[in-house]
Amino acid sequence: MHIRPAAATDVPALTDLYNHYVVHTPVTFDIAPVSPENRRAWFQAHPETGRHRLLVAEDGDGGLLGYASSSPFKDRQAYETSVETSVYLAPGRTGRGIGAVLYGALFDALAGEDVHRAYAGIAQPNAASMRLHERFGFRPAGLLQQVGRKFDQYWDVAMLEKRFGER
To answer: Which residues of 107-117 are buried (b: 16+ CB within 10 A; e: fewer)?
Structure first.
């Protein structure tokens, strides 16, 4: 497995991977599949340096295993040192430690940046994602009850917070 910054040529595979979760799971609250054009704008918002990163894991043949990202938490300037993180794995690739390797690389990359807090919103129930985030120092920050409706069901979202070095 190789971890690297995402490249523009990854956008189609990243889109396919994400759309699997859109169509089949409640882990993202997008309802309809996204287009590669939409994902290109998302990709461009994640440069190779800075607070907002996008890393991919690929197998020895260059196949996409998953990705991890840090994105703006909110769009107001006072939030700029806070990021929202996420990790998505290709179908059939969960439970093999890939998510942990990706998150480890992401947090290593962010260690040198001006990031004060990382947040993750996890649709419930999702024990595996909760364990992964707790492993990386995320702690409960609240529960948004029935905040999203997908598949004709309301879903809770656990908000988790990770502290980075204090100034």
So the answer is: bebbeebebbe
Residue 166 has pLDDT above 70, yes or no: no
Element (H, E) at 150: strand 139-150
Query: Which two three-digit tokens encode residue 2?
Result: 């190789």
pLDDT of residue 167: 39
State pTM to two decimals: 0.93
Burial class (CB in 10 A: 0-12, 13-18, 19+), 145: exposed
**Which band of pLDDT confidence, cut at 50, 70 and 90, is reported for residue 92?**
confident
Triad 55, 151, 121: Cα angle to 5°: 40
